[in-house]
Design goal:
With 228 residues, the chain is an alpha/beta fold. It has seven helices and ten strands. It has one domain: Vaccinia Virus protein VP39 (Rossmann fold). The strands form two sheets. Strands 4-3-2-5-6-10-9 form a seven-stranded mixed β-sheet, with helices on both faces. Strands 1-7-8 form a three-stranded antiparallel β-sheet.
Length: 228
């Protein structure tokens, strides 16, 4: 059951505590989540990934933030004939372990980490992807995350991600067997975050899209941008 978290609950938990709950939640439900999400790839994500991979040169370096169990996106990128160099990051150790099982250690460099604490040299990647993961960062961390990614991109590199459309804190007390949080700053908040922290990015696509996920329809805010 999803409810907007009471203000007193959200205010009593630090960003680190919130993210620890999220990490433990995915550790707990990793196999169940894969069994549910694996057969339900969204056409929106698949279309954007295909478009991005067509634009990239062979051997390009790609960072995926929130790679989960590696299905389907990391798998698709790793198997591409352009032989991309892929780094997959996830806050859940169990998810990373599943991703290594599906893809293998030699094909993708996996890292168990909080994306907000990552440090890469400027200009490290030709593309950075974040699907259904930015909204697990507390609201105050989401704009700054965009700024970090801009620095990691090489000139001409691409950023592809989606965000929540509502300004809210959602607390699921029992999501597939574990508590879970997600956060949004709203469509206009997302755009302001890109305006303030995405300096140097040219926005190619700014789309609010409705997706069919199993029996349900969900709405996400997609951004596809290129570093100038």
């Amino acid at each position: 059951m999803a409810t907007e978290a009471p203000p007193d609950l959200a205010s009593t938990l630090s960003p680190e505590e919130l993210k620890a709950i999220i990490a433990r939640g995915y550790d707990t439900i990793a196999p169940q989540y894969l069994a549910w999400s694996g057969p339900r790839p969204t056409t929106t994500r698949a279309a954007y990934v295909a478009q991005l991979l067509d634009l990239l040169d062979p051997g390009a370096s790609i960072l995926e933030l929130g790679c989960g169990a590696g299905v389907p996106t990391t798998q698709t990128i790793a198997a591409h004939p352009k032989k991309f160099h892929v780094t997959g990051v996830d806050i859940s150790a169990a998810q990373v372990a599943l991703a290594r099982e599906h893809i293998g250690r030699g094909r993708v460099a996996f890292e168990h980490a909080d994306m907000a604490k990552l440090h890469y040299e400027e200009g490290s990647f030709e593309a950075v992807l974040a699907f259904y993961s930015i909204f697990h960062l507390p609201r105050e961390e989401q704009p700054a995350m965009i700024g970090k990614v801009v620095k990691w991109l090489k000139p001409g590199g691409y950023l592809l991600l989606n965000m929540n459309t509502k300004d809210e804190v959602v607390h699921r007390e029992d999501w597939m067997g574990a508590p879970m949080f997600s956060f949004g700053i709203g469509v206009e908040g997302n755009r302001r975050a890109f305006e303030e922290y995405g300096k140097g990015l040219k926005i190619l696509v700014d789309e609010v899209a409705v997706e069919k996920v199993g029996r349900f329809e969900e709405t996400f805010h997609w951004f596809f941008a290129q570093k100038e």
